[in-house]
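Cross-posted from the bioinformatics board.
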Amino acid sequence: MDARWSSPDIPPALVALVDRLRRGEAAALARCLSLVEQGGAHADAIGRLIGAASGRAIVVGFTGPPGAGKSTLIDAFVGHVRAGGRTVAVAAVDPSSPISGGSVLGDRIRMQRHTEDPGVFIRSIASRGHVGGLTETIHRVLDLMGASGRDLIVLETVGAGQSEVEIAEAADVCVVVNAPGLGDEVQALKAGILEIADILVVNKADLPSARRTADQLRAMLTLRADARDTPVIETIATSGAGVAALAAAVEARAELPAEQKRARRLRRVRRLIAQAAGRAIRDRILGLDDPRSDAALEAALEGRCGVAEAAERVLRLLAYPAPPAPAGAPSPVTGRPDAPPGERSPPPSCPSVIPPYGK
Amino acid sequence: MTTAPRLDPPARVLVTKIGLDGHDRGSRIVAAFLRDAGMDVIYTPPWQSIAAVVKLATEEDVDAIGVSSLATDHLIVPQLVAALREAGLAHVGVVVGGIVPADEQPALVAAGVGAIFGPGASRDAIVAGVAALAADARAARDAELREQTP
């Protein structure tokens, strides 16, 4: 287990590093991002040091299928933002190999316009097996980028299929980038990333079928029950056509009422807590040394109950840990001191009817 | 395959080309080697400036940089190493791969290049060399935080 520091115990070098981050120093931001990725005590300490100062910047998310032109469009979009004098941080997520765990993070290849502009900070992030288009640490990444004083944060997902909708929670404005010729009307009807779009883009608008793709998307939007006013914008990222219109649409969407912003942040915090709680519970179950949990394990192993039910029981054990072992006689069954009479030890076998999943 | 120690999170390695040479087949192959060895590879197109590489290495917080050179660009690698030091990135390992004449290698090593791989270098040798430099860099970085600087 990691050591947990109370604030006065945080290493001075780490405090100094976070101070440098707050002053906007790129090297300090980069270093903190690595530490957050590493997890553990340093990551927690950074989270505490950053505290409530994070998250003033607008987060603009870009998602869409591989090859739609997300990175190239971001390059052009960032250029437009920079021309207005505002600073930008980009978090670009690429997939990790499920085989080797390695990755080639190539989003930067399309972002060559900003290679020497200190007003643009680009960080490539490997998805590390996380499903959903982003990474486990992405919310912390965004917090750090915000705390470093960047005016605008751009978040690029891995090339997304139809269900990578996490970005809707992470971003203030969600841009879904499509390319012509990737599907027919039925694709536009399907559930998934199109539904979470605040702005729909048809990139590569110089291709002959672009107009038709845009029309199909607009038609799909008219059928939606919630009838949000979602603009469909045609762009040519390589020439910059349509980028100003996109930036204007992002600007319009970014003006969220304070109430909505707060609701989004609350959802984000809830997710962070759920993640942290999940990790903590996992660690505790893996390290659990309690004969009563063995009974649940064996029941699951022998098929007397489902894994979900065994999990429920183990969770109950975590909530009500065994009291200090009494000096009494060892249990005749396990040979170890028995739990005191009462509710806690699980019954010898599970009911044969397993409650429905998710109950 | 190699038995080089793996870092967690994986080693972050920049594979790039500085100068005017555009032969990028080699850098692509090496990028794939390192990916398959479990590293996170940040890959750039050729023709990067030294300033761009330093900015990139800073933002990506890389552990090592592999510079591919097939047409004398290795001669500006000492400038790159110096620029990295100036930017506070002295811990980052620098590897040169490609064509480096034997009589020009000592100058690179003296400048701080950690390893040089020529034609015929094996996948395992390249992976092990980069992994070792990356592990050193990571260890140096972690040590910085333990220093009780005021």
